Every structure is written in C-alpha cells, then in structure tokens.
Amino acid sequence: MRELTYVARNSVEWREAPDPQLRSDREAIVAPVAATSCDVDTAILAGQGFIDPPFALGHECVARVIETGDAVTAVAPGDLVVVPWSISCGTCDHCRTGLTAHCTSVPHMAMYGAPIGGSWGGLFSDLVHVPYADAMLVPLPAGLDPVAMASASDNWSLSWRLVAPHLKARPGARVLVVARGSIGLYVCDIARALGASDILYVDPDPEHRKLAESFGARTAETIEPIRHGFDLAVEATGRVDQLALAVKSLTPEGICESAGNHFRPGELPLLDMYLTGVTLRIARDNVRTHIPDALALAASGTVTPERVVSHVLDWEQLPDALPEKHLKPVFVLDTALPQTAR
C-alpha cells in the first residue's frame, strides 16, 4: 500500500509500505474514503512542528471497514466509520473515565499522523491498522455525508467539546472565537446552534470571516482585549499573543479553551487572569469520548459542517494539493463512497 509521507517543508509524497495485517482478534483494517487535513497539519507542512520528517501524515478521516478480527462486535466489513486520531484501548483506567488520549495500554501520545508515541501510520494512507476496533471505531450514522464528517476524527468533535458543555452550563453565553482555521468556524456554527447570545469571530482572513458571518457571528480582522466582554473564549491560532488576548477579554470566572498547538513559547497575563479569576484549559483532546455526541449534533440538522469544507479533491491529488493553502480540503476515494455522498 501507499502512505502519504511528510518529507520536507511543504513537501509530501507517496511512499510504499507493507499492507497492514491483523495481529489479534480485536483489530481491524480500514480504508479511508474521505480524509482531510487537521488545522495542525498546516503548521506541520509549513515546517513549524517539532518532529523531524519523514513520517506518515493524516489523522482525520471517515473509512470503510475492510477486515475485522473474530472478537470485534461493534463494526463489520463494509461499515463506514470515524477513525479517532488517538490510539486507545477502551479498557484501561484512563479510557474508562473518558481520558482516551491518555490510554495507558500504549505509549504516551500514541496517535495517527505523527510518530510521537510510536509509529502508527497516518490516515492519508490506502489502508490503516486499527489496534482496538471496538474501542476506537465509531459507526457513521446513516444519512451523514462522509465528506462533511471527514473531520469528526478530531476538529469537528473537538469543536463540539470546546463549546457544548459550557453552553449547557451557561445558557446564552457570549462567545469569543480567535482563530485561523476550521476549528474556529466549526465553533461558530455549533455555538449558534446551541444558543450562544453573541459570537465574535476574529480572523485576518476575509473569506473565513465571511463564512463565520453566515453562521451568525460578528467578525473582526483584529481586536484589542475587550474587558469583561465574554463568558467563553476559544483560541485556535497557536499564537500565545492571541491566547493572551482571549483570556484578557473574559468576564469574572470566565472560561478560555485553547485549541491551538503552541509550538513557540510566550507569556500570558497571569496577574490579569488571577484578578479576573479565569479558567484556562489547554489540552490534548480526548476526542473518542466526544465523537458520538458530536455526530448526533451533526445528524440533528441544526448545524452545517459541510459548509466548512473548502475543496473536494481526488485521493490521487494528495501529494500536489495538500501543501496548498486550503481551509479544509477533503480528499475522496470516489469508488468507495455511497452514491449519496458524491
């Protein structure tokens, strides 16, 4: 099989790798049918990551199950499934309490798309080995488009977690979104659907702002901190100065969720945060725990994640098109998709 390999700044290529094989009765082999780039992949391709190439890239996809071990009961060959970005067993103490990104059965930070906790391959591959099929794979609900939900592996489900629990606890909360990619736009859509009273989206890209406005958000290219302006802030830029802007705009006891990958150091306004009494969460997301709820919201018809998809491209275009600057390209293996998804 082939796996798309990050080889140098803004450069990827197909490389041959052995076909994955089942090694236990709990495993599965899947074939991606709609895969997309995570916001962090853009930073990796730009040479801003902390892992030297080469390595297999990709950690967001909907896939078709090709083969399963005898003990697998949750999915069967032919099923369309969401493949979570992190590897989790489902049975260790952490997994049972929802901390699936911290599974103790595998090395710390075991994941697809980057060899941090071992080498697990990437989801821009013709075939993918899933070591814990029942624990990891989530069937795609009938009627959901695999192209629209290609990001459920990470960015879509993460965006649900960034706002949904907070809006449930604080109905009508005011939400600030400081972003550069798909996460911020998904957040705008979800926050509107779940009853945020005000959404301000901050992004220098005019096309992104236009899309955010269609989700009901006010927009700005840049802002200064708005003292006590928002109950919830979501930062998804990877820039510490923008994270500082977000926390300085919170109401007393406000909450800031940071979804940016901060590869560079910086300073936070800790005294301001102390005096305001803010809660800041910077976390590697336990996305497997949230995928079912995020898919249920998508299936409700109150959100439109497909509008964030900027391009639908053929699987064979991956090496040339992935390094280009697209908001949310989805690469499709057409022959594997049901007719309703094309």
UniProtKB/TrEMBL annotation:
- What keywords would UniProt list here? Metal-binding, Zinc
Q: Does the record carry Zinc as a key word?
A: yes
For the Alcohol dehydrogenase-like N-terminal domain, which residue ranges apply?
Answer: 25-140
**GO molecular function, one example?**
metal ion binding
Needs which cofactor? Zn(2+)
The protein's superkingdom reads: Bacteria
**A Pfam family assignment:** ADH_N
Domain Alcohol dehydrogenase-like C-terminal, first and last residues per copy: 183-283
PANTHER family assigned to the protein according to its UniProt record, in alphabetical order:
ALCOHOL DEHYDROGENASE (ZN-DEPENDENT)-RELATED, ZINC-TYPE ALCOHOL DEHYDROGENASE-LIKE
Mind telling me what this protein is named?
Dehydrogenase
Q: Which organism is it from?
A: Streptomyces spongiae
